[in-house]
Amino acid sequence: MENKDINIRFAQETESEVILELIKGLAAYENMEDEVAATKEQIHETLFINKDAEVLLAEYKGKIVGFALFFHTYSTFLGKTNIYLEDLFVKEEARGKGIGKLFFKHIAKIAIDKGYGRIEWCCLDWNQKSIEFYEHIGAHVLDDRRIFRISADKFKEI
């Protein structure tokens, strides 16, 4: 699926504010605006100085309309590095143009080129449209897994 109006590229160091605005757009979509604590400075430091994660941006007709943020994990069973897709978001006005699929194609090419074993991500259980999209591209839900989380305020209690 080739679309000359869409460009997927890695984010540049000068785009921390744009990334933060897209994160806020995702939070609004998920009704979680109050949970965004990240600042432009934190985005810059963690993504471009520490290189804790990578960000792809989608441009539609020259305007940034989406992002995909991912980082690397490791499978001891496979003995391979994997990609964990933390977030994928496309602004409402740019949905339905194939941008999500192009993000996945780009990420899959990275995984192929580097010999990675998997691409994994989570999806909110109410987001049926995204679930259907993920199934359409060949993903499947791992029913035998549960996500656990310990927040920073509990680290010292362990």
Automatic annotation (TrEMBL):
Region forming the signal peptide: none
One Pfam family in the UniProt entry: Acetyltransf_1
Organism: Prevotella herbatica
Domain of life: Bacteria
The protein's name: N-acetyltransferase
Keyword Transferase: yes
Gene3D superfamilies, sorted: 3.40.630.30
Residues in N-acetyltransferase domain copies: 6-158
UniProt keyword list: Acyltransferase, Transferase
